[in-house]
Amino acid sequence: MVPAPPNCVLGGKLHKELGESCCTGLDLAGRFLFAILTLMTLIANLVFIEEVVYIYRKIHSSKRSILIWINAAAPVIATTSCIGMWIPRSTMFTDFTASVFFAIVIHKFLMMMIKECGGQKLFLKRFENGHFKISTGPCCCCCLCLPGVRITRRSLFWLKLGTFQFALFRPVFMFLSTVLWTNGNYSLSNLSPKGAAIWISCFIAILTIIALWPVGIMFQQVRVLLNCKKIIPKFALYQFILILNHLQTAIINILAVQRIIPCAPPLSSPARGAYISHQILIMEMFLVTLISRVVYRRRYDELDPPACITEEAGVKKQTPILNVAVREDGL
């Protein structure tokens, strides 16, 4: 690692001492940028509120909660990024909030695909003779020879468990990171085996891959069936948020830790990296919020029930007619 120049060390100290006040020395261009980004965050939240009102008025109650969670991903990330931009010392807490929220959204997206198929029972009826294609990313995209897994209640349970574990354990690891950070034992710049950051990051990466795999498997199974409900654009938006919030942020943090992103007193290199990441995320999540409104703010026709359900319903309707006919003959 390149040693930090004296002004970067001084910038890091000033960043810790000044904290919230590091944004007070902005010039006119900086204040204009902050105002624009804050306005974008405000508009994103207003669009989301309008979307929530529409969902409560037009969408069936069984889908409301899931759709609200998914649509809230971009506005929540934009809001936490805006807070982190104005108050740099809150970065650890804002990142904690955004990461935990999106971990829940990953599970909700899987549940949404099942709900759009009519729920778990109808999903199993539709694909009772089918197989899950498990040779998908991010785990087994190169293992094309893997056999399919039969679609049963048990295999569906394992898919849901794969995303649920991430929603459960991600907050635990992020809370542990925050506690260690407040005690001075957690730093992304210390990636030695003796440090806590490298181990926590590895565990979170493993949990993330395990959680993304079931979503990819389910999408491959239902993308043709749910094409009428625009599942491909919805999945693309989900992937964009995932890449921008995780991969992009990780790349910027690595560049900042290696001091490829130079310091700018009173901000050290890591602080400036987080500062840049927050500003970029606000603009990106603003655009994602607007696109999500176009994709989700419409009522799609429900899928036709499976053939077996239609036949059962037809038999039930015909049975009373036969009984009446018998009684008439008896009279």
UniProtKB/TrEMBL annotation:
> What InterPro entries does the entry give?
Ostalpha/TMEM184C
List the GO cellular component terms: membrane
- UniProt membrane topology term: Multi-pass membrane protein
Superkingdom of the source species: Eukaryota
Answer whether the UniProt record assigns the keyword Transcription regulation to this protein.
no
Where does the chain cross the membrane? 32-54, 66-87, 93-111, 157-176, 196-215, 235-256, 276-296
> Is the Magnesium keyword given for this protein?
no
The protein's location, in the record's own words, is: Membrane
Q: What is this protein called?
A: Organic solute transporter subunit alpha
Please tell me the species this chain comes from: Gallus gallus (Chicken)
